[in-house]
Each structure stands twice: as structure tokens, then as C-alpha cells.
N5-carboxyaminoimidazole ribonucleotide synthase
Amino acid sequence: GEWLGMLGGGQLGRMFCHEAQKLGYKVVVLDPSGNSPAGMVAERHMAAAYDDIVALKELAASTPAVTTEFENVPASSLKQLSASCRVTPGAAAVAVVQDRIAEKAFISAQDIPVAPYCEVRDVSDLEQAQDALFPGILKVARLGYDGKGQQRVSSRAEAIEAFRTFGQIPCVLEAMLPLDYEISVVMARAISGETAIFPIGINTHENGILASTVVAEGLVKEDLAKQAREAALRIAEGLNYQGVMCVEFFVLSDGRLIANEIAPRPHNSGHYTMDACVTSQFEQQVRVMTGMPLGATDLLTPVVMLNILGDCWFNGNASHAREPQWHDILAIPGVSLHLYGKDEPRPGRKVGHINVVGTTIEQAKERARDVIRKMGIRTVLS
Ligand code: ATP
Ligand code: MG
Ligand code: MG
């Protein structure tokens, strides 16, 4: 079979490998670490830095198409690869979304509401920030994820303090918004410009990390879903985006929809597609990069996705790791377990997820609550 290239060796790359292999492709993974979750299942693993010019050359020579699972891969590396292979998403789109300052400016320019914010490049930006931005959240412009690189600040003084702690690197200060709930649009845009949008789920977060996604027909009101789909499409068109992407939105207590951020790759909130949709988000990624038609995104069944964090290994005993009792959890009907093969289940680290399906959303949630009890976690479903 033909080769496909993947930049990044995390779980998103691993699930991509599985889907690419299902379709008869071989995958070469480039990742800095020697044994990454994706590298373990790929046909070939190149251990090199993402900006290693020699390694990128070798990668480009070994595959006709490259994608990424890591939003912070240097845009310059994508640019270099694009000289000799098809790179989706492209360097220009990734450059925008990997910098919160450029990302927020871009989304606003599409007439899509974002949280009130200001750019922060030095202390004076915070001294001059509008009072309306407090209480707020200071977020580093680059390299933040899973709530890392951001801090809630109740006052200007606290914001300045946090900015100093971050090392005075470029940031954005956002007003803290009254969230009712969060939704995300996972979609694909093909090289042809064709688009396909997956059903919209409701997400819950714990400590800044996604905890669950619930998806069922009619769960998100149609007018809101339509608004979110239209905004995501406008973003994808505006970026001339090629690939799978996700737009995270906040739904405020007054019903308004606010775009939070864009991920230039399959997204954790799209993991439910693996067991509940005709096409998974990872198969869709393969389809885009190989120029195949996009797959159907229909929802086959109501579903609850639960993230498994390393914390589950330490329930009740912080010093002694104990693996959850998968035997008991897999005895629950409708449960599908996905583990990422990570060697060290550290707290706060994503080590797997569980999709729970049911005939009705009530049944899927009931089964998911059973999983939650057996895992000893505290997730509250929306
Ligand atoms: P990830 O990339 O893993 O989704 P991140 O580190 O990039 O996370 P954000 O998505 O910006 O961070 O924020 C993480 C979570 O913090 C959001 O999903 C939301 O629950 C909360 N949050 C972020 N910004 C705001 C805001 N302006 N008002 C209220 N809550 C917010
Ligand atoms: Mg993010
Ligand atoms: Mg986010």
C-alpha cells in the first residue's frame, strides 16, 4: 500500500494510524520521542524534532501526503514539506490557529463573536486594559493546551502578576464569561472545497480538561446548531482550510454563541465518532489527505464519550498506581474502550476514552453513569 505521513506521535496520531491502516495505507510517524503512542502502531517511526530539516526531507521523500495531529508543529515545517508533498492542513492555516492573537483577530474578522479580549505584549497592555476584562483569564498566545498556560485573574494586579509568572511572553487577556455549556463543531474540508460536519455534541470540562461529550439527535437546539455550523464553515473557508478541524464554542447563559478556539486536527470532542458515526473523524482525515470523497457524518446512535485520565489510576491512593477494573467496565452494555498505550498514567494525562452507546440518550447516559461509578471518577453528565 501507499504511505501516509503523520507529524506527531500522540493518541490522535495513533487513532489516525488505525484508520489509515484499515483503509490499506502504511503510516510513517515523525515525533521527537523514541516510543510514542502513534510510533508504536505505525509501520515506521522517525524519532526527530519537528523542525529537523534533514528528517523533514526524508519524510517528504517517503510519502506523498502528510498531516498533523499536533497543533504546535512549526508552520515552517509544514511549509518545507509542501515543496514536495501534499500537506493538509497547510502552513498558513496552522500558523493562524496556533497563535491565539492571530486566531482571535481572524475569527473576529469573520464577524463571529469571540470573548472580549485584548492582546498583551507587555505590562502596559494590562495597565491599559478595559475594566470590563476583569475578572478574566490570561492565556499565553502560543503552546497552551488542556488549560495549561492560562490563569484566571480577578484583578489587574493579579493579571500583571500572572503575566510576569509566564515570563512576559505574548498573551491574550479574555473576560471571564458566564458559560451555560460548551459545544464544538468537528468538520472536514476537502481539497476540492467539499465540506462535511459531524453532529454537534455538548462538552463538559473538569479543571480545564474535557471530561465528557454527549451527542444525540435534537440535544443541541437547531437554531444554535445552525449558527455554530455556519460559523465553523465560515472559518474553514476563510482559512482555505484542508483537513479535519474543530471549533470550540461557549454557549452563554443568555443564549449567545461565542467562538473560543480552533484546533487544526481531529479533536477530543470528536472521539465519539469512532463508535457512533458512519465515518470517524480519523477516517475523514485520511480521506482528505488522500483526495478521496468525504465520508458520511450521520450519527448512528446516541452516545456519551468519557475521557480517561491518569488520575483514575490513583483513586484513593496517591502513591500507588492501580489500573481501573476494565473487566467490570466492559461488562456494561454499549461500552467501547479505547486505550492509547501510554506507559505512565500520570494525573491530568489523557490515557484513553470510553464511548457508551444506547438505544436512547437516557440509556446511554445511564450506562455512562455506571461506568463513572466503576471508574471512581466524579464526572457529572450534562
Ligand atoms: P484545549 O486546547 O485543551 O481545549 P486550552 O488550554 O487551549 O484547552 P481553552 O480551550 O481556551 O484552553 O480553555 C479551556 C477551558 O477553560 C474552556 O473549555 C472553558 O471551560 C474555560 N474557559 C476558557 N476561556 C474562558 C472564558 N473566557 N470564560 C469562561 N471560561 C473559559
Ligand atoms: Mg487549545
Ligand atoms: Mg479549548
Q: What stands out?
A: The chain has three domains: 3-87, 116-175, 179-375.
